[in-house]
Design a protein that fits this description.
Layout: E1 11-14, H1 21-32, E2 37-41, E3 51-54, H2 60-69, E4 74-77, H3 83-88, H4 90-113, E5 119-125, H5 149-168, E6 172-177, E7 179-181, H6 194-204, E8 207-210, E9 218-222, H7 223-235, E10 247-248, E11 252-254, H8 256-264, E12 271-274, H9 278-284, H10 293-299, H11 307-323
Parallel strand pairs: 1-2, 1-4, 2-3, 4-5, 5-6, 6-10, 7-9, 8-12
Antiparallel strand pairs: 9-11
Helix pairs in contact: 1-7, 4-5, 6-8, 6-11
Length: 330
């Protein structure tokens, strides 16, 4: 779906330092102007041209004041503890993921009642699925019995946002992101992060030890597509949004050996070995491929990057960064 001219919006992005936030913020600023997009950071504040605020999205009073003072019209609520880190501290994952979402929804409810409605984007994930979900071409509406606390919070979040849409009429939209691949931010504690770490290994020492075994196919997407999908969904006419829990989206599915083989076409000496850890069990509970026909039919979603394009762009852009020190935790 092409972008069309729209009035500038006053936008707040929470979790702006995360993998998606760090690339969504500049894209939104390019679209709406630096002065109209406020990035909320908990820490790790970058040097960028737009307005930055440091604070805790878990603090309802602070968040409510920020939205009121800036007269925010859209909130992209990206705060969250991811799958692997969520298993290390499930209590924190539940508190952060659910508590901050409930704050945003309650603020939106109050503002709508006051005649100042806000539109909300909230990300779900393939982690909402589980071992009882059909793993091939996972449909939009299916069994949701996740095996991780991160997944539990995504299912609960999907139900909560759908409830607030139906009961209070809040315009809230979401995507079930697959694994996201990006060169701009380091791996952030997700089970699909091997597909980012592998490029650091290829560029640094020409080898990589994968924490997932061969044959572990997972749905993936390049960050450029993820950002574009997010913005296209938010700009789509409300009459076209028929799913308020969260839309399935995907671009390509591959396993560690598949991406390694694609890298070897460009770096023939690259080697991969395997040492599965606790993340293997998480990956085994997720889909191998996704049916995103609802998103394609309702608002025109279509990916631009396949696996060869992803590998080309990652190696081109990550090279200097990877050689400067490698990814944290590797």
């Amino acid at each position: 779906m092409p972008f069309f001219p729209i009035p500038f919006m006053k936008i707040l992005v929470t979790g702006a330092a995360g993998q998606i936030g760090s690339e969504l913020v500049p894209a939104l600023r390019s679209r709406h102007g630096d002065e109209n997009v406020i990035a909320l950071y908990h820490r790790n504040v970058p040097n960028d041209p737009g307005e930055q605020v440091v604070g805790d999205a878990g603090d309802r009073v602070f968040l409510e004041s920020l939205i009121a003072e800036r007269d925010i019209e859209e909130v992209y609520h990206l705060v969250g503890i991811l799958s692997a880190r969520g298993e290390e501290n499930p209590d924190l994952a539940f508190s952060v993921n659910m508590g901050t979402l409930k704050n945003v929804l309650d603020i939106a409810k109050d503002r709508k009642k006051a005649g100042k409605p806000i539109k909300i984007f909230w990300p779900s994930s393939i982690a909402a699925f589980g071992p009882t979900t059909p793993r091939e071409k996972t449909p939009q509406r299916t069994v949701l019995e996740p095996a991780t606390m991160y997944g539990v919070t995504k299912v609960a979040g999907e139900l909560l946002v759908n409830y607030y849409f139906k009961k209070y009429g809040i315009d809230i939209r979401g995507l079930r992101y697959p694994g996201i691949i990006s060169w701009k931010t380091p791996p952030g504690g997700g089970t699909t992060d091997y597909a980012v770490e592998i490029f650091y290994g290829a560029l640094n020492g020409k080898e990589y030890v994968s924490f997932l075994k061969p044959g572990t196919y997972l749905p993936m997407m390049y960050m450029d597509d993820a950002v574009r999908a997010t913005m296209e969904l938010m700009e789509a006419d409300a009459s076209k949004i028929r799913v308020r829990t969260s839309y399935n989206i995907t671009a390509v599915s591959f396993d560690p050996e598949g991406i390694a083989a694609e890298i070897r076409k460009r770096i023939p000496e690259f080697k991969i070995s395997y040492k599965p850890d606790f993340r293997q069990q998480i990956a085994d509970s997720w889909p191998r491929s996704i049916d995103d026909s609802s998103a394609r039919e309702d608002w025109g979603w279509k990916p631009s990057f396949g696996l060869p394009e992803i590998v080309d762009d990652m190696l081109k852009n990550l090279g200097p960064k990877a050689r400067a020190g490698g990814a944290p935790g590797m």
